[in-house]
């Protein structure tokens, strides 16, 4: 590597660059005088003029100043919004090529962490999404007063600058039209909206979740104080003007930065839950409960989890990081018993309600962190022989991997939403488990995100 070149270059310098591959975050990667260059929105086979945006001792960050020769993978019909807001980081790539690059991102992650025998892993072709657009069933729309005008939409990529949106290619139509109607009602009623400069106003975000099966909407207003001015008029207008809304809640979050949600959520009107159908089972979701963003593809994802686990009536299944119980409940008829663990108390309440709703009697649920509760179940003599883990983006806790390795089960399925933490976790899991295959699944078209179902068996 020519490290001197990074000392010679400065921000704003330009040079020609051919993009060679995709990086683990979906950016294009090229090499300038043997130094690696990361370029967002660049695609393999692009020939570009790259402008330096950041200089590091061992690598460069750049942006596309000009495309000299467009890659054959480029989408000629890229939506205009792709350069304005987040959530469309792969929209400049043709869909069939997005699928190939998602498998490449998985390979890149494995090459970085090098779990045992990773070169021989069977990485299957990425499963396409049922819908490539208008698939997102939920959106969190910040709403702000800026220079006397109310804006509601999404932030400009990498900034806190709010872009007012009337459409979004990945968002369902009903959600978008409801959001715009709510914004008009908020304006009419002159409800105080958050002003980032003055740190004033009450309403800071509108969260909408949509049920595909039942064509209903769950609306949550995130406010900066418990007091919600003109709450009753707002509810009346929504009931009248957006009949699909079945539930309205308020969440209180006094912080301007950090987490979207505060600790307190209260139902203002309507149903406590939004219902959705997953593989013939009905599930209740409270406003903060986790549901995969792509409802139609969730059926397919759970089918693939089922295929990887191959459940039988002898199986005692641990549904780890179970959320509201969706994966375990969809397997309840094919296993002997389910033990679900989840750290969020409301999610476990939802899971118990969902088991009851679906007349599932062979499931027990526990609140707490999986790495602490699972060893306690083992101490109590519960002989789990199959496990599904569906951890957050951070992956499995080190102590959980230790427990899995000390007490290896016949069948382990890892559902991952982050290839990097998956690859890192497989380094240790591969000591006691053989990786049979990795199945990438496209849950998030037009983005570099990829879900992966990994089938592992005891060595």
TrEMBL record:
> Which PANTHER family does the record cross-reference, listed alphabetically?
PTHR11061:SF45, RNA M5U METHYLTRANSFERASE
Q: Which residues form the active site?
A: 417 (nucleophile), 417
An MF annotation (GO) of this entry: rRNA (uridine-C5-)-methyltransferase activity
Binding residues annotated for S-adenosyl-L-methionine, in chain numbering: 292, 321, 342, 390
Its protein name is 23S rRNA (Uracil(1939)-C(5))-methyltransferase
Residue ranges occupied by any TRAM domain in the UniProt entry: 8-66
Traced from the root, the source organism's taxonomic lineage reads:
Bacteria, Bacillati, Bacillota, Bacilli, Lactobacillales
Q: Does the keyword Acetylation apply?
A: no
Could you tell me the EC number(s) of this protein?
A: 2.1.1.190
Parts forming coiled coils: none
Q: Where is the secretion signal located?
A: none
Q: What class of enzyme is it?
A: transferase
Which keywords does this Swiss-Prot/TrEMBL entry list?
Methyltransferase, S-adenosyl-L-methionine, Transferase
One Gene Ontology biological process? rRNA base methylation
What Pfam families does the database record attribute to this sequence? Answer: TRAM, tRNA_U5-meth_tr
- What family does the Swiss-Prot or TrEMBL record give for this protein? Belongs to the class I-like SAM-binding methyltransferase superfamily. RNA M5U methyltransferase family.
Tree of life domain: Bacteria
């Amino acid at each position: 590597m020519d490290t001197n070149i990074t000392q010679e270059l400065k921000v704003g310098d330009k040079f020609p660059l051919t993009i060679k591959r995709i990086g683990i975050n979906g950016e294009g990667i090229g090499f300038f005088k043997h130094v690696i260059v990361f370029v967002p929105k660049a695609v393999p086979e692009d020939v570009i003029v790259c402008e330096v945006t950041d200089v590091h001792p061992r690598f460069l960050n750049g942006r596309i100043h000009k495309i000299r020769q467009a890659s054959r993978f480029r989408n000629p019909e890229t939506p205009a919004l792709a350069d304005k807001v987040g959530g469309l980081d792969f929209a400049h790539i043709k869909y069939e090529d997005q699928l190939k690059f998602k498998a490449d991102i998985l390979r890149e992650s494995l090459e970085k962490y090098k779990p045992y025998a990773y070169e021989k892993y069977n990485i299957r072709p990425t499963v396409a999404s049922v819908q490539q657009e208008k698939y997102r069933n939920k959106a969190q729309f910040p709403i702000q007063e800026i220079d006397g005008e109310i804006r509601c939409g999404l932030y400009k990529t990498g900034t806190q600058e709010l872009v007012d949106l009337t459409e979004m290619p990945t968002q369902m139509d009903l959600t978008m039209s409801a959001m715009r109607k709510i914004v008009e009602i908020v304006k009419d009623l002159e409800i105080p909206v958050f002003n980032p400069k003055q740190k004033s106003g009450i309403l800071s975000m509108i969260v909408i979740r949509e049920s595909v099966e039942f064509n209903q909407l769950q609306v949550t207003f995130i406010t900066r104080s418990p007091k919600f001015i003109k709450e009753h008029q707002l509810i009346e207008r929504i009931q009248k003007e957006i009949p699909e809304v079945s539930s309205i809640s308020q969440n209180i979050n006094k912080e301007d930065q950090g987490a979207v949600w505060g600790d307190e959520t209260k139902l203002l009107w309507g149903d406590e839950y939004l219902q959705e159908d997953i593989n013939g089972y009905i599930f209740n979701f409270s406003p903060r409960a986790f549901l995969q963003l792509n409802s139609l593809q969730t059926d397919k994802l759970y089918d693939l989890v089922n295929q990887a686990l191959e459940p039988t009536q002898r199986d005692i299944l641990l549904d780890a990081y179970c959320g509201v119980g969706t994966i375990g409940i969809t397997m309840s008829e094919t296993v002997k018993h389910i033990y679900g663990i989840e750290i969020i108390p409301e999610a476990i309440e939802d899971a118990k309600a969902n088991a009851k709703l679906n007349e599932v009697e062979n499931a027990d649920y526990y609140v707490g962190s999986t790495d602490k509760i699972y060893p306690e179940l083992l101490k109590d003599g519960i002989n789990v022989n199959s496990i599904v883990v569906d951890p957050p983006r951070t992956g499995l806790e080190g102590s959980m991997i230790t427990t899995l390795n000390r007490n290896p089960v016949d069948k382990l399925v890892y559902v991952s939403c982050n290839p990097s933490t998956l690859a890192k976790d497989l380094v240790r899991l591969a000591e006691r488990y053989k990786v049979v295959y990795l199945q990438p699944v496209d849950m998030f078209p037009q983005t570099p995100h990829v879900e992966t179902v990994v089938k592992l068996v005891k060595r």
